[in-house]
Structure formats: C-alpha cells, structure tokens
Amino acid sequence: MHGIKTNILSSTSLTPATVATSVIGLVATGTDADALTFPLDTPVLITDVTAALAKAGKVGTLYPALAAIQGIVSPKIIVVRVAVDAQDQDTKVLGTAGVAAYTGMQALLMAEAKTGVRPRILGAPGLDSEDVTNGLIAVAKRLRGFAYCMAEGATRDAAVTYAEQFGDKELMLFWPASNKGATHTIGCALGLRSYIDQTQGWQKTLSNVVITGMTGTAYDVSWAMDDDTTDAAVLNAAGITTIICYNGYRFWGNRTRSDEDAWVFESAVRTSQVLQDTFQEALFPYIDKPITEALVKMLLTKINGALRKMVTNGQIIGGKAWFDPSKNASGDLAAGRLALDYDFTPCAPLEELTENQTITDTYYTGALSGLANTSNAAAA
Known about the structure:
Blueprint: E1 24-29, E2 44-46, H1 49-53, H2 62-70, E3 77-82, H3 89-94, H4 111-115, E4 121-123, H5 130-143, E5 146-150, H6 156-163, E6 171-174, H7 182-199, H8 231-237, E7 240-245, E8 249-252, H9 266-283, H10 293-312, E9 316-322, H11 330-334, E10 341-346, H12 369-379
Parallel strand pairs: 1-3, 1-4, 4-5, 5-6, 6-7
Antiparallel strand pairs: 2-3, 7-8, 9-10
Helix pairs in contact: 2-7
C-alpha cells in the first residue's frame, strides 16, 4: 500500500454467541421409513418431531428413538438413516468419509454444510456397539459434540468391565436400559439433554432430572441417598450413568469416561466446547485485521467481557484472557500469528453433599425457664 490507511475497530462488547448446543445428531435404521423424508446416508434436519414420526415407519430404531425424544422435547434433530445389514450392521452405522460421499455416522460431519445446523448431542440408540461407540466418539471430537451410548453387559459388574475400555471425555455411558429397551434409553438421554440445554443450560448435567416417559428399568438397580455401596454408587464410581426411581425415574450420574480430573464431569467438557465455539465465531470478523497493540487489547477486552457475562449468567465460575509475550515472538507476529491465552472454571455439579450432625444438650439451657415463672405465679 502507498498512502494512508485507517483501521476502524469496533468498540462494542463481545456478546457470547448462542451456540446451538441442543441440536441432536441421531443415527438410526428404518427399513419402512419414507425414503424421501429420510434418504439413506444423508443428514436431514428435522424441526417437527411429531410430523417426522409419521414418516419414520415402524421397523428399525428410527421410530422408537424419535418417539422417546418427542416424549420429552421437540428439538432440532439431524437424522442420518442407515441401511440394515444383518451380517455387518456396524459397518453401515460407522459409514465412510470419502471424497465422493460421507455415509453412516460420518454424514453427521456434513450436516452443517448441508443444513446449516451442527449436531452436538450424538447417539445411535439401539445400534451403539463397542465399535459404533468408538466411532461416535471420533465424530463427537470433530463436531465438538458429546456421545451418549449404552454400556454392554447383563450385570452391573459386566457393565463396569465394559466401560473400562473407554477413556474419552466426550462420552457418557449408561446402564441398565429402561424396561422399553436400549433404543428408548438413549433416545431419552438425547431428548433430556436437549431439553436441559434449552431450559437450564449446558452447564447443568444430565443427572437428577425426571425423565418423561420412563416407567422402569430392564435390571434392578439398588440406590440410597446415603449409601456408597449400592449398585448406583458402584456404577457412578466407575463413570457410568444409571437410572434411579425417586419421585420419578431419573438418570443418575454426571461423569464422562475421562480419567483426567479436569474432564470428569459432563458439564466441564461441554462448557469447554461452548467457549471454543463462542470465541471462534465471535472473533472471526477480526481475522486478517492488522496486528497492532490496539487490536490485541480490544480482543482481550472482548473475550474478558464475554467471560464476565457468563459468570453473571451462572454459566461459569470465573475466567480471564491474557497476552503472554513468551508465546508471541516477533517472528511469529510478523508472520501473522497471534496467540491469546484464557482460562475458565466450569460449574461443577453438587455430586456429594456432607451433613455434619452433632448431638448436644445446649438447647436445654433456658428451655424450661418459663415453667419457673408459672410455678411462682401458682404459689402466689
């Protein structure tokens, strides 16, 4: 450039983007589903679940999964219908990501490009074998989403053993299934997760919210509020969410499959994902602007303002952003590379409440003093 250039920098505050965290990504089978409404291996945006049910057929997992979701909430859903293969169903569900087409669950990766909506709450109810669960985890990582899957096993201990092979923060496992089956269970998990996002926020975990339409479990699960030896306590300690009945049936468990303390709670993982998306979307307009001290200060001001607003909204406990000179060498800045750091503290769920009870005679002091006055009055 030869002349004078003025950079006009906005001084408006950065408002945290409303990331559509409540969008469900559903992979299902439906041999008699309407092929025009649900073409195979194609991400389809559903905004009216009731209308979609009329086109879902009755054979396969599509109808019961949609029905379970519809019983709780009517969210946006990206549906990918896959073919039935009695010999190798996992291959159809896993799909492929090729140059020509994305099939199976890989089609979820194309949802945003084709429908304008990115699925965040992922599941393949009734189809989530070990291989499929691993596949969903991989897709969740790419979408900044979260996978909800069943733990295999006919007993509590078998489910715990099964869960040990997973260690990803983007996964929540469930055991047992409801009395209506695994498809219904995960359908309810997807629907309830979406409902909580819409009504309470992504900072609230799935646990301890009444599940509309849940009437029982396939296996008995013992549970008590103050007993850490029950089935529910053992499952939770193993990072498995279970189902309890206390004033209604509820999912009980907050944990992912991560063994890192920072990521053991579902809410921590999803908060991190929301922050990443929020800042990337909000700061996109500033890409390719000249790197100046004023620009860096403005970006930090905007990020810190957004973090403060999230604190005010009860979405995080705290957070801050800063510029670290040691990570911004002159050569990097000259090459157009700027690094900004930020930290945050997510809202942890109140998973364990301790009440300290003390027995004391303190409250007898003066407790009967009124009787002395009564006795004196009677004597007079």
